[in-house]
Amino acid sequence: MGLLDGKVAVITGAGGGLGEAYAKLFAKEGAAVIVNDLGGTVDGFGTSVAAEKVVTDIIAAGGRAVVNGDDVSTPAGGENILKSAIDAFGQVDILICNAGILRDRTFAKISEEDWDLVTKVHLKGTYCCTLPVWKWLRDNGRPGVIIMTSSTSGLFGNFGQANYGAAKAGIYGLIRVLSIEGRKYGIRVMGVAPNAVTRMWANVPGTRDGELDSILRPENVAPGVLFMASELAADHSGKILAISGEEVAEIKMLMTEGYHPKGSYTAQDVAAHASSVFFPAELKRLRTEP
Hints:
This protein is 37% helix and 14% strand. By secondary structure, the protein is of the alpha/beta class. Helix 3 runs parallel beside helix 4.
């Protein structure tokens, strides 16, 4: 018995890296998989047939999978990805929004094109893929799981990734809202902030050298995402996990005790109560890796 027996999973950006690792593990655990990949390079250019190889590998291992090459960043693409699942397997139960690109620059050097394309693929792409699956689950009265990909670049910040970080922080907000709206439909929504050595991270500022490559493999993120997609995580929604071969940990937005003026106050009053307004420095866990 696999953890995902009888389930159908859509995984975007699954032609390599993290998406490929998810697809192969999910298939091994019994899911039929839609392997979506547009076939672009890290910066959004070029083509490949990587997704076809992933499907071939899954089928050769005894699993079930089909290829989808639609663009996640368009409404039509999102609709067609869902259609691939329904046409091939008659249902959808799990959506993993994983597709992404990078165009890293310091903020002053980011062009409007770089900003628009990165936010379009990550943030709008998550919306475009989620909406049709969400509506299908709702209209068919089926529970489901949607896992969106955020990043510590958005949740903690990372030099040279303003466009990417802004998109990933926006995805965190979407996770929180949809986890609330999904309660009445039995739709769980969670987020993953993965840390793995993939082609996307080869030139990211602040990433580590190769000494931990064997630990920070995409295959060491996949079991955590499998947990999130399975009934093992049935009691969890609206949460985001940082996952790598080094750790699995929840990232949570917190508030301090705060200063409570009960009406009018001055800027000097805020300064005088700074110890209540701000977290103590020793409690901050500063993270810079994507």
